[in-house]
Amino acid sequence: MKVALLAHDRFPIIPPFSGGLESFTWHLARGLRRRGMDVVVFAAPGSDPRLGIEELDVQPLVLSDAARNDVAMPPEAQVRETFSYMQVMRAFGNRPDIDVVHNNSLHFLPIVMSAAIPQPMVTTLHTPVTPWLEPALRLTPTAHTVAVSDSVAQLWSTVTPARVIRNGVDPHEWRPGPGGDALVWSGRIVPEKAPHVAALIASKAGRRLRIAGPIADRQYFESKLEPLLDEHITYVGHLDTEQLRELAGHSAASLVTPAWEEPYGLVAAEAMACGTPVLAVARGGLSEIVRFPGGLTSQPGVSEAETVAGAAAMLPLVVAMDRARVRRYALENCSLEATVDAYADLYRELVHA
């Protein structure tokens, strides 16, 4: 079987990953190849050559001065992205070797064009409802959809009946660590991930905190997070997987502090696979994967000050958790192998329908 994986065209599929979607696509591609499947990927140029996969090429966007001077000209990145997906979807008509298309993009066009390609297509919903994908799915009631958590499936339930296949982590990649004294926070530095809340929790609890991840929103970093940095609360940069594993494995606990309905919470699963307990704000899919006692704090609607105070008070219980038990829980509930197997079964189901 040959599977085409569609990511978005902003970031290549290569570590260090820009976000969870890129990590998911990279690990899924590798897992499918281990199961004997051929994989074709569309993403930004420069995907990891070690994956040994075919990249779908598209022609670059060419706009005349007249087109650029149109008063209705939208942002060029939006035009380029739409043009890229249009090319890719049209290309599938000339690729009888591809058996199934797995859409992981956040763009509407693959969904609305899915009926025009000969292959069955499944779309994984990686986010809460968006104004682009919602109308596209309403126009395509026969679309096959997967949600990364029960929470995401519920958010989309009035739009599409999504089957749930949770994300997972590789336990050989995220190995157990000895722990340490400092806390860790990792992820994209953006308002919806709210690392500044983690900084406030650590300060309230009198703990050191190391923050890792790409600065995707410079204004947020400079206005909300940077003023909280000092000798105890430090930003350590955008780390690769090996560096993140070392950081997580040598931490007392991982803080996960979303200010939105977190679709899944891959960083929580990664930390737990290292044996590092997680203290998480109970938003979205995090409530489904951080289940062991003492790992969840404030529900939506609780003020930031109450979240910080409650989390700081709960932290000693979390830090005291048995690391072997945390690791065992992750292996049983956050397995990448189970994720890849579920998608492989779904592809076969779609091809033979």
Automatic annotation (TrEMBL):
Q: Which UniProt keyword terms apply here?
A: Glycosyltransferase, Transferase
Q: Which residues form a coiled coil?
A: none
Glycosyl transferase family domain residues are 183-291
* Pfam families, per database record: Glyco_transf_4 (PF13439), Glycos_transf_1 (PF00534)
Q: Name one GO molecular function term.
A: glycosyltransferase activity
Q: Glycosyltransferase subfamily 4-like N-terminal domain spans which residues?
A: 19-172
For this entry, the protein name equals Glycosyltransferase family 4 protein
